[in-house]
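#dry-run=false #mode=assembly
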Amino acid sequence: MEEKRIKVLIAKPGLDGHDRGAKVIALALKEAGMEVIYSGLHKTVDQIVNMAIQEDVDVIGLSIMSGAHIPITKKLMEKLKDMGIQDKKVFVGGVIPSKDIPKLKEMGVEGVFPGGTPIEEAIAAIKASVKK
Amino acid sequence: MSTARYIKNEKDQILDVILESGIHIKPVYTPKDLEEIGFSYEEDLNDPGKYPFTRGIHPLGYRSRAWTTRQYTGFGTPKETNERFKFMISHGQTGLNVAFDLPTQMGYDSDDPMAEGEVGRVGMAVDTIRDFEIAFEGIQLDRIGVGLTINAVASIILAMFQATAEKYGYDPKTISATPQNDILKEMIGRGAWIFPVEHAVRLIGDIIEYSMKVMPKTNPVSVCGYHIRESGATPAQEIAYAFLIAFAYIDNVRERGYDPDDFVGGFTFNFNVFGNIWEQVAKFRAARKLWAKLLRERYGVKKERNLFLRGIFGGGGYGLTKAQPENNIVRGAYYALVAALSGAQTTALCSYDEAYTIPTPHSALISLRTLQILMDEMGLRDTVDPLAGSYFIETLTKQMEEKILEEMEKIEKYGGIVKAVSEGYIQRMLARQAYEIERGIERGELLKVGVNIYVEGEPKEVELHEYNEESARLQIESLREIKRTRSQSKVKKALNELERATREGKNVMPYLLDCCKAYCTLGEMTNVFREIFGEFEEPSLF
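#status=ok
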């Protein structure tokens, strides 16, 4: 049986405009056979959640380089919960100090990819999470 | 990180080296190479300080003046930033470069819901002129040049800077500010854009036009190949796109009836220093030569000093790694060497902890000391353009010149830089290149010490700058206090006049100056523009 194609939203929440990492991961996931939607810059959490619902994605990948990953991710996870959407796997990538990784996971984030994470590792983690 | 590609045999002997710009390096260079490229001392180099300035814009280089050191600085409240400015100056820093937080860069006040979680995080928070008064308190604005890393709202921030300088009793003619003010590169990389291209470029033109009359010592534009390179561009593309962007701004001001000789002297550049050492040095030498030649040929610029390519060569952010962070100190030293060998007027380094967060005073000071060691201990001030005449460097410089021209031509064939940026042509190409680079690192074709070679286990945590949420609270409190106590009628009047002038296509700068003096907020002024201009529509990635 053919595997279902994984659908991913790569999103840039907040005001940070550094998008090299987001674009690279978007291209890599596409190359790996996933269907990828890229949000573009400066999106609010509400816009991202709406996009995820409309496109019915399996995975939301947040790319945050400004250091605001804790408040932004918290807001997104709460919003998903409020709307009763808990089937979407959330990943966070960017400039993330190691000490913040447990905090993000406690919020319900599936995986964290700090700068320097090999692309293959990210692809494998996303694939594994959707199969769960 | 090695950026060149190396073809090796099984004994690890190098068979070929291919630089990012596509040039192959030979194992040995001889006088024959210079002959083959038709090298002429007078035409290709000439003495330092003489056209085409390949060897530098000053006859005596660093002998007459060492470079300006200008670490990117700013965080939290204006008071904290002011203290850090004074700390850096007290340790021998000779220029300032202000980092603004993201709400400021995007035109939101600190109390705006869009600013939540970001106030004072990656730079200093600014809402009104009061913040500038605090940030520049006790700093001699007629003595020290101030870089303002601001783009979409550069007009507002420059007006605020002028208003502050005037309030402290300085004649605007004596102050030397360098607002970054390069919006097209924000659309290619970095992403702090707000308004659509046409309106955004008009604001840049307004700043240039206004500066030449009111603040002649101010450099109204710093065109940034830097961020274009950070986004995945080759060194040749970095220079090529920066030049095309500069031409787009020149054209805007020229269409207003000015002779380029009246204003191009104020243009400066910001270029990157990571990558293959030879390719970078050749890049800078070729860029200096080409800028002078192109200004003469395309714009008929006559005055010699207007042909100078002046700039900050530094940073190197993409070359740094999160793994084994102390290695970044060493990388920084080599990047600084590149800048010095290339004749940079101004320099700064990314600090070793910037793959984690913004720098601590400790890491910022290490960067500054790295620059000082090079100038004061190692002999980089001894003679101008020390690599001149090298068979290799001169051949490579000439080849880089050709590559830069080729890259410019490709964009001009596409329909020009404005079209290429508006339609996302360049952004898509650079994203693809960035992706190929990541793949190259993962396959081990591009070597990165600590990442894919000489790897150590778990990355060590370093002492990091901690974001202080209290700063955000204080900033919002101070903004509310100003909003309560300012004259509402003056605010309203100034904003109304700004709106009218913007709609009528007048130069907005004098109106912004009035707004700043009336304590209008950055967000209020930006909203006037947002209403009239709308927002840039980001082209699609795929």
